[in-house]
Amino acid sequence: MLRKLMILLLALGINCTVLGLEPQKQSGLSNQDLFLLLLLLSQRQDACAGVSSPILSSAQGTGSMGGAAGSITGRLLTASGASAVSALVIAEDSATTGLTFFSSHTSIGRNGTFLISGIPGGSTVKLSFEPIDTGFKNRIDRHIDCFMTPASFTSGWAPNTGSSLVSTKGTGRTYTITTGGTFDAGNIFLN
Question: What is the total count of domains within the chain?
Answer without folding.
Answer: 2
